[in-house]
Amino acid sequence: MLRKTKNFLKSQNIAYSKEHVNPLMVPEKVYVLKFGEDPNDLNNRFIVEHTYTWTGRIKITKITVRLHGQKKPHEFANETELLRYLKKKAYRYSGKAMREREERKKLKKMRRMEKKRLKEAKAAQK
């Protein structure tokens, strides 16, 4: 279950763990996939509610994403919508991606400052 999502997490070097929860009072089964940058601190999670069809296939009812510190979870009907959201918001759940983004910003700022300094030095020579 969630094969594409797991492959995406692996490609982003994000640790995850999975577990099945079978509530007694409702017919839906629950699959929980916890993930995060640090394998010891998996504070984000996907909660997949699913049932089985009469042929035995899994039918996903809904997928809920709860990111760390998020007040309102996001709900998706299928895995494709979930992947589209994750690709857009990768920096939110991957500390590594966020750090890389910050480093790129710093480099860009340093290059801008260097260009500005060179321009000022050229103007001072004239």
Would you kindly provide a written description of the structure presented here, covering whatever features stand out?
The protein is an alpha+beta fold and about 130 residues long. It folds into two domains: about 90 residues; about 35 residues. The protein is built from four helices and five strands, in the order αβββββααα. The chain has a five-stranded antiparallel β-sheet, covered by helices on one side. A hairpin with a 7-residue loop joins strand 1 and strand 2. The longest helix is centred in the C-terminal third of the chain and has 31 residues. It is elongated and about 85 Å long. The termini are far apart. The mean pLDDT is about 85.
**Helicity level:** 40-55%
Number of spatially distinct domains = 2
Structural class by secondary-structure content: alpha+beta
Oligomer: single chain
Q: Which descriptor suits the 3D outline?
A: elongated
Strand order of the largest sheet: 1-2-3-4-5
Average pLDDT score: 84
Give the helices and strands as they follow along the chain.
Answer: HEEEEEHHH
Biased composition (Basic residues): 106-119
Region (Disordered): 97-126
Kindly list the characteristics that best describe this protein:
alpha+beta; 2 domains; single chain; five-stranded antiparallel sheet; 126 residues
Short description:
The protein contains 4 helices and 5 strands; from the N terminus they run H-E-E-E-E-E-H-H-H.
